[in-house]
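Q: Entry one of two.
A:
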Amino acid sequence: MSEKLNDLFANNRAWAEDVEAREPGFFTRLLHQQTPQYLWIGCADSRVPANELVGLLPGELFVHRNVANVVIPTDLNCLSVLQYAVDQLRVRHVMVVGHSRCGGVMAALGNVRVGLADNWLRHVQDVRDRHREFLDRLPAERRVDALCELNVLEQSRNLCRTTIVEDAWARGQDVAVHGWVYGLHNGLIADLAITASGPADVEPAYEAALAALHRRFGDG
């Protein structure tokens, strides 16, 4: 085994010992229950460690990650995670979390070929094309982060339109959808204020968040 991989095992042992020292019996309790209140749908970028960013331990945050935090009705992987989290774990909050300077968003914005992922990033390009006029008015250096935030808004709305969330709301289940963005430059999460707790909230929340985004980037 390479020295680098040995380091990972050593780090794991140190982490487990530290957790057990701080909370004796933690792993034994974790073995018998999983009761997270949150589902995080984020980017696969290695610089965005979900649990650490919000200070939650294993068992407290259910996580799904993919390139550029995309939520589409044909992605059975994402939908399976969503359904298990909502129907079985009964999470109360689902967050779509993008991040600044996202490589997938950068590739989508500039039509950069990266391989098989080009087909996946077509969904982000659809967001780009939908907001092309706004993006073209921005200085070039601001377009990537603007598209990162626009992508969060669009994917959050997509999430609200899934049958899983719609059915949960229809039966009166308490679950809210949120759109956030993480700043690689400062380590802070910002709430983009697209929050919906029922079908009537979705479009007003989207429109208000979109207007706020335009103002934030100096357009309108």
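Q: Entry two of two.
A:
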Amino acid sequence: MGIKMSWEDFARSMGVEPQILENKEARLLKKFVMDLKIPTHCQGCQGLDLSNPNPVHHPSYELTPACNHDCIFCYSNVAVKLGKAPKPGYYGWENPKAITVSQYGEPLLSPRIVEVNKMLRERFPEARLDLQTNGSLLTEELWEKLDFDLVMISLDASTREKHLKITNADTFDAVVNALRIVGSDESVRSVVRTIFMPGINDEDIPKIAELASSLGVDEMMLQPLTIHELNVERLRKAGLDFDRAESVREFLKAAMEAKKYIDVRISGCQLVLYQKMDHLTLFSARRVARDVVPLVKRERNVT
């Protein structure tokens, strides 16, 4: 008859103290993930359903592939260079839960932004309208003409110098002003959208969170970096730590730091997956996000 041993006694019989087998950081990360909320932008998205074998993003209205920024990580830039950028128009279906304006290019460059905003509001009165912008062209005057439910403004640096290095545009003050405009408007959900680029903007992320919070911004949507082939050399020159960029643990630790200052959230499709993982799997998980060119998986309806 075998002798039953507790796992603690078994560990000691192998010469290992039990506490060594317990990964406290892993449990802390797991608790953090379980407490996170779905980003407002992701609510209603197909990606939240893990049983869906081929989920697609919310519908979008694309205005222009052009942009006044030239970010070192940008997928839209890659799509333009490879001739794969979507043409202007509505990409989606009838009765959408949300529509994003837009996922490619800078929508505020288009003279049609106010017109399209009004058209979408009239055509899809039940849909949440999300504006995704780099914020550099948003003024008080323009904001008064727009009508969105949520505004995501991209900011990946906490200083003018770092912002210039990442975007190749000297627009830091204008972006901060845009965050102030939307942050002070209680009728809209304001979000600062930040990409995790270890080696480039690690120290900036909590500072961005603190800055955005001080301006009244409601939420930070922290996203991991997808590395597109055409951007590899630019990212390398900027100092990207490619190994850490693929670590889920490093990404979540950055989110935890930002959480001290603002309501930080991570992409909903990632969150539901991470919440299913046990703490040790989560601790060692890697997100290998390499791509050649982003593609729109929704049909275009000319509008």
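A: Comment on entry two: The longest strand covers residues 189-196. The CA atoms of residues 187 and 299 lie 32 Å apart.
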